[in-house]
Amino acid sequence: MSFVPFVAPTPQARILLRCMKSHTREPAPWWKQLAVSCVVLCVWCLASAHIHAQGIASVPSDRQATQVAIITITGAIDDLTLQSIERRFKAAREQGFDAFVIELDTPGGEVGATLDIIQRIRSDAPANTIAWVHPKAYSAGTLIALSCREIIVSTGGVFGDAAPIAIGAFTGLEALPDTERAKLESPLLEVLTEAAEKRGDDVRMLNAFVQLGSGLWLVERQSDGARRFVDAADLERLALDASTTPTVKSPAPSSLRRPSRMLSADFDSHNTSDAESWRIVEKIVNAESLLVVRESEAMRYGLTVGVVNTDAELQAFFGAKTVTRFPESWMEPVARFLMSWPIRILLVAAFLVFVAIEFIHPGFGVFGVLSAACLVLLVGAPALVGLAAWWHVLLVAAGVLLLLAEIFIAPGIGVAAIAGSGMLIVGLVLTFASTDPESAPTRGALTDGLATLTAGSVIGVLLFWFISRTFRESPLFRRAVLTTALGGPQDGGPIAPTPRVGALGIALTDLRPSGRADFFGEPFDVQSTGGYIERGATIVVLGMNTGTLIVDAARESSESSQ
Question: What is the largest distance, in Å, between two alpha-carbon atoms of the chain?
Fold first, then answer.
């Protein structure tokens, strides 16, 4: 028979027993049930508020924010990106956002635009501005990220490789002379030096993103686990052999401290016992490579402070009430598409074709409207987003006015046509770059602009030649030309027989030397052999060349039937 000792019930047990007995009786009145429910609800609300307060308190004070604005940078960074950043920074400030997040997904971009964006971050963004590498930030994106107070990454995020390069629209990657490279690297290294001072990073680590060096290693003091960055000279001072570097990178310990910027403060190069207390943890970058870090490496090197994948996680990271995205406006992707060099080449070619048709068949009509539309797109896209200066647009407008004066006021190739063409070309080329003309990127952009106009002109000439030979006699092309020349649509009836040599007609337009003339009540393409012939003059057919009647001014003694 088993023995079970008697244990007196505790006070808490007695209360529980009484509660259990009370449940066997009649249900409590409704007002008691309501009171109990209210008490339970109040306790739940207080507990939730306490938990939320504990979550807010876990966010560092310099990171806490109420409203967070996400400013996205996607794709290549250029002057259009700069204009977009300025607009969105202004909108976020005016709406009272106290923290900015620069979300980066970029392969890099233009040096000039990148430096200007960094300057805007320093001057126009709040101190609580964080970069979010989501998922990549190469080259210019790395410099922008390091200019922010902190960096966070998404899972698998990567950034680095920020050396300046020159890429032509038609020539591709171009080699930079040493002097030119040093000139481009100088402001980038200055940015990195300032970032290292503000963020507490090792300047050699940041410089490895931009410059090739002697290699970089991570070493650890065996006595306390402190880690430092060292270069080849430091390894020699520590009497460490680079060949002993582990092949597998060690994971970051949970208590890893940010590596110090100054190794000399932690050891004496003349103290052998201190030098022997260090070991190589891993090799960070070779002397022949630029530094590129992924999520785990960035955390291990102290470059990033956390991993964030969603807007909800970002809100918790700041302890914020709201997170709002500020995307690009609809105009900016459209402008970027219209400003791409393939589209600009097509617009230049179409502009020249329509102008040529309008010049041959004057009277501002369908082709004149189309040529004007192409020119508006060429100049209007960069002007719309502030990339084309006002005097660039003025130069293009003045060139167009001179060309119109040559066509309608003083026909004949002359000073107005030459001056107008020159102003038009210069104005269009300048819309490709509006920054310092002394810088290499701007000179490259101007070269690309000139190459784009040249390619578009060649394509336009070939396209016009093809159209004039293939579609000159087609009903659709003839009707379009007739609408332009005569000011209205034709009836689409049968085309009259081609006039024979010696036939007389009336010039419907000024012949400069090409134009339109009336024979047998029908308009035909004609070309004068004797230069300019005024509209309304009597002309005579001398022959035909590729579908165009060759004519001359008729003399009074000419005898021909019409």
Answer: 152
Using left for φ > 0, alpha for ψ between -120 and 50, and beta otherwise, residue 520 falls in left
Higher per-residue confidence, 26 vs 160? 160
- Could you say which DSSP state residue 264 is in? G
Percent helix, strand and coil across the chain, each to the nearest 5? 45, 20, 35
Classify domain 496-562 at the CATH topology level: OB fold (Dihydrolipoamide Acetyltransferase, E2P) (2.40.50)
pLDDT confidence of residue 40 = 58
| For the chain, percent of residues with pLDDT exceeding 90 | 31
Domain covering 65-210+290-328, topology: 2-enoyl-CoA Hydratase; Chain A, domain 1 (3.90.226)
499: tokens are: 């006039």
Omega before 135 within 30 of 0, i.e. cis: yes
- Identify the three-state secondary structure at position 519: strand
d(CA 471, CA 103): 52
Do 140 and 77 form a contact (C-beta atoms < 8 A)?
A: yes
Instruction: Identify any residues that bridge with 173 across adjacent strands, giving them in sequence order.
Output: 167
Residue spans per domain, the chain: 65-210+290-328, 212-289, 331-470, 496-562
The pLDDT tens digits for 476-489 are 455 455 444 444 44
235-239, long-range: CB < 8 A, 24+ apart: 235/280, 237/269, 237/275, 238/267, 238/269, 238/275, 238/278, 239/272, 239/275, 239/276
Query: Integer distance in angstroms from the first to the last C-alpha of the chain?
Result: 142
Which residues, in sequence order, are CB contacts of 198 under 8 Å at separation 6+? 149
Give the pair of three-digit tokens for residue 65.
């924010």
What is the C-alpha to C-alpha distance for residues 529 and 203, in angstroms, rounded to an integer? 75
pLDDT digits (tens, 9 = 90+) for 142-176: 999 999 999 999 999 999 999 988 766 555 666 67
Burial grade of 476 (CB within 10 A; 0-12, 13-18, 19 or more)? exposed
Contact 387, 79 (CB under 8 A): yes
- Record the pTM: 0.68
User: pLDDT at position 558, please?
Assistant: 45
Q: What is the CA radius of gyration of the chain?
A: 38
SS3 string, 33-62, reads HHHHHHHHHHHHHHHHHHHHHHHHHCCCCC
Using CB atoms within 10 A of its CB, is residue 481 exposed (0-12), middle (13-18) or buried (19+)? buried
Residue 5 phi, psi (nearest 5) = -65, 145
Torsion of CA 465, 466, 471, 476, to 10 degrees: -90
Which pair of structure tokens corresponds to residue 488? 């209205």
* Coil vs helix vs strand at 277: coil
Sequence-ordered alpha helix ranges (H) in 326-439 = 331-338, 341-360, 366-384, 390-408, 415-430
| 406, 414 contact by CB (below 8 A) | yes
